[in-house]
Structures are given as structure tokens and as C-alpha cells.
Design a protein that fits this description.
The chain is mainly α and 293 residues long. The chain is 74% helix and 3% strand. It has one domain. The chain has 11 helices and 2 strands, in the order H-H-H-H-E-E-H-H-H-H-H-H-H. The chain has a two-stranded antiparallel sheet with strand order 1-2. A hairpin with a 2-residue loop joins strand 1 and strand 2 (136-139).
């Protein structure tokens, strides 16, 4: 049924959008391509899983704990890797290469300590009951995923538009030197952006883990291609674009798996990425920037 597939696609797309929000926030504000972002995704899921197994915490506690842990890890890792590059105003290629090497090392260390086997949340961690409306079945996990995504997106919007921190973040995104001259604590703002992006990535990791009930250290690696596709299709650094493109990608993947082949769904992100770069390189909401001599 098409309506059921669309609901499933909306759920999957919500997690993609949430993942891409943190990714595009980092690029849009700090102007760095941070490949360790996929690691934060894995950290959030694994911390929530560990807390659920060892302490018996509920999803309402494990989810925010996993997201917060990922945010703290992001602050440490970004500070160690990117602070020197940012202060020396190194190009985007420098951050790409540094974080590529770092994420490979981080994944290897995580796999060495935790193993690479797929792990699952305890039975009954989230109720298996579902609502059925007009023939469409919506599980409690799906409701949780959509509700959490909406809540985090709303909180991010309010923070960016109506708080002093949001004003500082927007000023930093426009021009770091001008922000510093206006008395903004740039270093503290960078830490806040790293924390927020890690938190969003970690929350997305927990939600994807719930959606498929399959968690392992390298799960963030497979999400990075989708993250790149989403931020490029939506427009680099554009939050609205990340939301729209994330949901679009999720819906297209589910429809491809349902009506063509489940083996073909992994090619959807790459196909959309290539078509966007061919037809509209700036993305759906991006604007071409004039080059100055």
C-alpha cells in the first residue's frame, strides 16, 4: 500500500534529516567538513544501548543520555582536531583529511573494544503495539522517531532565532572576524556548535538503532554518504534544505525498496547526489555565490 510506504519513508526520512541537521550546522557555521560526525552517530546509539542493558534505563532516559554523550564527545574530538586548523584558517581540504584519518582510527578503536557484531536493544525496550488509522499501521517506535525529530528541530529553530546563543551562532556563520570584533566569544560559540551537532547526530543514531534494532560501531560510516547527499541536495549549510532533502531521501529509499528492489535502495542517495551536482550544484535552497577577484 502506497500510503503505508509513505509513512515508513517519512519515519526514515526524519532520522536522515535529524542526522543531516548537525552535519549541515557544522559546515554552515564553522566551514569545515567533519567526517568524524558519523562517529558521534555511533556513539549515541551505543551509549543508549549500554545504558538500557546495564542499568535498565527506559528509552526516555537512554535517548537523551546517548545524545548528550555524543555531544560531549564531539566537543572533545572537534577541539583536539579542528581548533588549530580553524585558528590558522586552513582550507576545507585540511579539515577533510584530518577528520578522515581521525574517524578511521576512532572506528578501529571502538571496534577493538566493542566488537563488530550487531547488537540489539532489550526486548520490550519500546512497546510493539501500533495504531491503525485508515488501514495505515503506525508503531510506537515510529511515533517516537517522528515526535523526537519534530521536537529537536523546533528546539533548534527557537535556539537559533530567539536566543543570545543563536544570535552568536548566526553571527559566527556570517563572518568570524566581524563576530570577534563585536565582542562575541568565538571559542565558546564554536564549542556550543560542536556540542549541538554531536547531540543531533547522537540522537539520530539512537533513533536509527530503534528503527532497525541493529547497532554496531560502523553504523555511522554508512550514514555519512546519506548525510553528504542530504546536505548537497538541500544546499550546503541550509537547515531548511537538510530537513526537506532528508525526508525526500527517506521516502525515495522506501519506495525504491518496496516497488523496485531492496538491493537498489542504497543506490538512491548516490544517484540523487550525482543528479543534483549535474543539474543544480548549489542544491534546492542554496544560492550561487559571486566570485570576487
Amino acid at each position: 500500500m502506497l500510503s503505508q510506504q509513505l509513512v515508513n519513508g517519512l519515519v526514515l526520512g526524519s532520522t536522515y534529516a535529524l542526522f543531516a541537521l548537525g552535519f549541515t550546522l557544522t559546515f554552515g557555521v564553522l566551514r569545515v567538513i567533519n567526517l568524524t560526525y558519523g562517529f558521534y552517530f555511533s556513539v549515541g546509539a551505543l551509549v543508549a544501548l549500554s545504558l538500557a542493558r546495564t542499568l535498565g534505563l527506559s528509552i526516555w532516559t537512554a535517548l537523551p543520555a546517548g545524545a548528550l554523550a555524543a555531544g560531549l564527545v564531539a566537543v572533545v574530538v572537534d577541539g583536539v582536531l579542528l581548533t588549530r586548523l580553524r585558528r590558522s584558517k586552513a582550507g576545507e581540504l585540511s579539515s577533510l583529511m584530518v577528520t578522515l584519518g581521525a574517524v578511521l582510527a576512532l572506528y578501529a578503536l571502538m571496534a577493538a573494544f566493542l566488537g563488530t557484531d550487531i547488537q540489539r536493544f532489550p526486548f520490550g525496550f519500546v512497546s510493539n503495539t501500533a495504531l491503525e488509522i485508515a488501514g495505515i499501521r503506525v508503531s510506537q517506535v515510529q511515533i517516537l522517531i517522528i515526535g523526537t525529530t519534530l521536537l529537536l528541530v523546533l528546539m533548534l529553530f527557537v535556539l537559533l532565532q530567539y536566543t543570545r546563543l543563536g544570535l552568536m551562532i548566526r553571527a559566527l556563520a556570517q563572518n568570524e572576524d566581524a563576530a570577534r570584533l563585536m565582542g562575541i566569544n568565538v571559542d565558546a560559540t564554536v564549542v556550543a556548535v560542536s556540542f549541538l551537532s554531536g547531540l543531533l547526530g547522537g540522537a539520530a543514531g539512537v533513533l536509527i538503532g530503534l528503527n532497525f534494532n541493529a547497532i554496531q560501531p560502523f553504523m555511522g560510516e554508512t550514514m555519512m554518504l546519506r548525510g553528504f547527499a542530504v546536505i548537497i541536495v538541500g544546499g550546503l549549510g541550509d537547515i531548511r534544505g537538510a530537513l526537506v532533502a532528508g525526508i525526500l531521501l527517506g521516502v525515495l529509499e522506501v519506495l525504491t525498496a518496496g516497488y523496485i528492489s531492496s538491493n537498489a535502495k542504497d543506490a538512491v542517495a548516490f544517484t540523487i547526489l550525482v543528479l543534483t551536482l549535474w543539474i543544480r550544484p548549489v542544491g534546492l535552497f542554496g544560492r550561487a555565490q559571486a566570485k570576487r577577484a
